[in-house]
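Quick start: read one record
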Amino acid sequence: MSVTDAQRAVLEDRARRRSTAQALDQRSQIVLVCAEAHSILEVSRRLNAAADTVRTGRRRFIERGLDGLSDEGHASPSP
């Protein structure tokens, strides 16, 4: 998975900022670690996150870029 320098800067800023929502922080970290070419299971172990969480975060970034990581970029399933 590739991440541009500009995207990396935004992701690193989000991961460092204390005011970042926990879910956005986790998704940002997932993308950063995935960009280092680690497997889903390795990212899951490194970040202590469920493999499904890693898959979802990675997919959202691939499909919608940085916007896909925010809660606004998350499409809720229909009831």
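The chain has a mean pLDDT of 86.
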